[in-house]
Specification:
CATH architecture of the largest domain in chain B: 2-Layer Sandwich
Largest sheet of chain B: 5 strands, antiparallel
CATH topology of the largest domain in chain A: Rossmann fold
Strand content of chain A: 15-25%
Number of domains of chain B: 2
Distance between the termini of chain A: 61 Å
Largest interface: A-B, 18 and 20 residues
Helix content of chain B: 25-40%
Order of helices and strands of chain B: EHEEHEHEHEEHEE
Radius of gyration of chain B: 19 Å
Structural class of chain A: alpha/beta
Number of domains of chain A: 3
CATH superfamily of the largest domain in chain B: ACT domain
CATH class of the largest domain in chain B: Alpha Beta
Shape of chain A: globular
Bound molecules: thiamine diphosphate, magnesium ion
Structural class of chain B: alpha+beta
Oligomer: heterodimer
Shape of chain B: elongated
CATH class of the largest domain in chain A: Alpha Beta
Helix content of chain A: 25-40%
Largest sheet of chain A: 6 strands, parallel
Distance between the termini of chain B: 32 Å
Number of helices of chain A: 22
Strand order of the largest sheet of chain A: 3-2-4-5-7-6
Chain lengths: 568, 166
């Protein structure tokens, strides 16, 4: 790499201090971590640090999800820190979660002394080996002279192109040894040049296809959020007046309240979006990757449609679905160019068809007597917290949140879509709240997911974070129970969570406010009460209908046209 | 839908710790095939050259190309099978049993046909070095098998585009 470094400090510094100084140069505000032997010099360097706040988490998984949540909410690089061996392996789930959703993150792990590496030393683990398939890149630092350059490269790689987690594994002697601190002003990696500008000829082809289409639809994903291209996406949609579906990862990139919005597609998506895929003659995919949860059975997916696919990652294009016009580039750049070449589409019959589907098949549920319906809870959360950042965990509650909360802004909705990591949401909410102190942060959790990382309530209480933690408690691993009900003859193997602790009492034991809601009429008062609690987290345990299912549903392996509508 | 074809990729990578593991891990993790793999430093010490022979249908080959490019340490990927005409060579060392003198003479004659060189000779065996393309090496190995191959080692293919095609 090219160095045009200016010399900042003439005295030599310990590697750990160089690391901290480098992180400051990258504008890092928070580091989420758990201490341990092989990382002690770094934690020591952070001890009297004022620019960077060290957030001690209670489990390294929490640290990596918190860094991830911070990154998703702010668009900046999140930083997690752990010791070697078990500290590093505990980070792994969070690293994989960030990798699957392309979240910019730097995970720093202490490593045993250089001369111990490879000897099965105490708390030694080949972190580079373990994380190789779940990170964008990784570095092992054995020499303190490398620290500054590696940090600069790591942040550059994590945040550019298709973002992703980068691991810095640093041996303890490299943390202790001294070197001069010289931070590179620019980073130039000869083997890493992301293609951000789309091919003009391809963009022109796309514009021509859009003009000809009679039944076109836009299909936008998380890539639009990552590229901060929501404005350009809105411009494209408004200019062409083409109906749009936004995936689970992209929710909020286009306002779901708009008449052109068909809501999310796929397994638990809207019938409208799924029928539109099946009938469309043109699909414009933007930062979306034709995931199996979106397409259903590929042989039945969008049989009549030409496909334009805009993606920063060439390997995503044509991976699952053959594409007619591939455009490799950054969504923001490509859409800016495309927007210059499009105009209102002359497709009134198609728009009318879409409106009819929307009218006929909204998300709906049956209000059972004497039950708190989970969907009703979400509707009321939307009613009272429509501006909040909403972070869901994984399961039925996640799907209901995606369906019944109407997202209008990018980075308003955070969830582990790719890896589907239970336990993601509470620590991620901590990161999001720290990154966006002026926002209300709502955590919609499941009873099963919540308890997987419940220990992170401790730092939330300590920091007095005003998190609204709403548990949709069905006393089951509900999503799995639903599949067992539908496909395994109701054999409820290992999903019964009636032995859940009393989450309201437990919250109080943690020092948070804990409320329990068992009746529909208590839902709104509890939500209003939670609004008023601003000096720490509030946990509301909503005891909901136990065996309610998520509909619509496209059973795994079926085509989108075979969607089970549920009620209708 | 497509038929499977053999492809030779020439991959220039940073000559750095762990790069081979990243390339090999990509193939095993995504279920791509490696038929042969050769790695060595180039004339520029900071760069290594990987020659990788694989097979798959057009879609898989395209995926391999893009995924190799996605690795941060990969400087350049060329699919030699589509980029132009190329030359390819592989070197094999064969240790053949030569228990009786009669047989030894015969083996030396056969080696001559393949332009093989004797690089070690012991009373009961000799080691031959043969260079060539896939077809030639296959033929040589088949023949020497009839005399009894004691040991065999091959480099895996190396290849490059002809003339000024690059
Ligand atoms: C770490 C992890 N383990 C297992 C699963 C499989 N899984 C997917 S959804 C789900 C149930 C989640 O239960 P809960 O949090 O109570 O949410 P609910 O579906 O009941 O709303 C399970 C076990 C997973 N996604 N992640
Ligand atoms: Mg549950």
């Amino acid at each position: 790499m090219e160095l045009s470094g200016e010399q900042i400090q003439v005295d030599s510094l310990k590697g750990a201090q160089i690391l901290v100084n480098s992180l400051k140069r990258e504008g890092v505000e928070y580091i989420f971590g758990v201490n341990g032997g092989a990382a002690m010099p770094i934690f020591d360097a952070l001890y009297d640090e004022t620019e960077i706040k060290l957030i001690p988490m209670r489990h390294e998984q929490g640290a990596s999800h918190a860094a991830d949540g911070y990154a998703r909410a702010t668009g900046k690089v999140g930083v997690a820190l752990a010791t070697s061996g078990p500290g590093a392996t505990n980070l792994v789930t969070g690293i994989a979660t960030a990798y699957m959703d392309s979240i910019p993150m730097v995970a720093i792990t202490g490593q045993v002394f250089t001369h111990f590496i490879g000897s099965d030393a105490f708390q030694e683990c080949d972190v580079i080996g373990v994380t190789r398939p779940i990170c964008k890149h990784s570095y092992l630092i054995k020499d303190c002279e490398e620290v500054a350059d590696v940090v600069a490269e790591a942040f550059h790689i994590a945040s550019t192109g298709k973002p992703g987690p980068v691991i810095i594994d640093i041996a303890k002697d490299a943390q202790n040894n001294e070197a001069l601190f010289q931070y590179p002003e620019t980073v130039d990696i000869r083997s890493y040049k992301p293609q951000v500008h789309g091919d003009p000829a391809q963009i022109a082809k796309a514009a021509a296809l859009i003009k000809e289409a009679k039944r076109p639809m836009l299909y936008a994903g998380g890539g639009v959020v990552l590229a901060n291209a929501s404005e350009e996406l809105r411009e494209l949609t408004y200019k062409t007046q083409i109906p749009i579906t936004v995936t689970l990862m992209g929710l909020g990139a286009f306002p779901e309240t708009d008449p052109l919005a068909m809501e999310m597609p796929g397994m638990h998506g809207s019938c409208c979006a799924n029928y539109a895929f099946t009938d469309a003659d043109l699909i414009v995919a933007i930062g979306a990757r034709f995931d199996d949860r979106v397409t259903g059975d590929l042989s039945k997916f969008a049989p009549n449609a030409k496909k334009i696919h805009i993606d920063i990652d060439a390997s995503c294009i044509g991976k699952n679905v053959p594409v007619d016009v591939p455009i490799v580039g950054d969504a923001k750049n490509v859409l800016t160019e495309l927007n210059k070449q499009v105009s209102t589409a002359d497709i009134d019959p198609w728009r009318n068809q879409i409106q009819e589907w929307k009218r006929k098949y909204p998300f709906e549920y049956e209000q059972k007597v004497d039950k708190v319906m989970p969907q009703y809870v979400i509707e009321q959360i939307y009613e009272h917290y429509s501006d909040a950042i909403v972070i869901a965990d994984v399961g039925q509650h996640q799907m209901w949140a995606a369906q019944y909360f109407k997202f209008t802004e990018p980075r308003q909705w955070l969830n582990s879509g790719g890896l589907g990591t239970m336990g993601f949401s509470l620590p991620a909410a901590i990161g999001a709240q720290l990154g966006c102190p002026d926002k209300t942060v709502v955590n919609i959790n499941g009873d099963g997911s919540y308890i997987m990382t419940i220990q992170e309530l401790v730092p939330a209480v300590t920091m007095k974070l005003p998190l609204k933690i709403f548990i949709i408690n069905n006393m089951y691993l509900g999503m799995v129970r639903q599949w067992q009900e539908l496909f395994h003859g109701k054999r409820y193997s290992a999903v019964d969570y009636h032995d859940n602790p009393d989450f309201a009492l437990l919250a109080q034991a943690f020092g948070a406010t804990g409320l329990r809601v068992e009746h529909t009429e208590d839902v709104v008062p509890a939500l209003l009460k939670a609004k008023g609690i601003t000096d720490g987290p509030v946990v509301i345990d909503f005891i909901v209908d136990e065996e309610e299912n998520v509909f619509p549903m496209v059973p795994a392996g079926k085509g989108l046209g075979d969607v089970i509508r549920g009620l209708a | 839908m497509n038929s499977e074809k053999r492809h030779i990729f020439s991959v220039l990578v940073e000559n750095r710790f762990g790069v081979l593991a990243r390339v090999a891990g990509l193939f095993s993790g995504r279920g791509f095939n490696i038929d042969s793999l050769n790695v060595a430093e180039t004339h520029d010490k900071s760069i290594s050259q990987i020659t990788l022979v694989t097979h798959g249908d057009a879609q898989i080959i395209e995926q391999i190309y893009h995924h190799l490019n996605r690795l941060i340490d990969v400087i350049e990927v060329t699919d030699l099978s589509t980029a132009g005409t190329h030359v390819e060579r592989e070197l094999v060392l064969i240790k053949v049993a030569t228990d009786d003198p009669q047989k030894r003479t015969e083996i030396l004659q056969v080696a001559e046909v393949f332009r093989g060189r004797v690089i070690d000779m012991k009373p009961a065996s000799l080691v031959l070095e043969i260079t060539g393309d896939e077809g030639k090496l296959k033929a040589a190995i088949n023949i020497f098998n009839t005399y009894g191959i004691l040991e065999l080692a091959r480099t895996g293919k190396i290849a490059m585009l002809r003339g000024s095609e690059k």
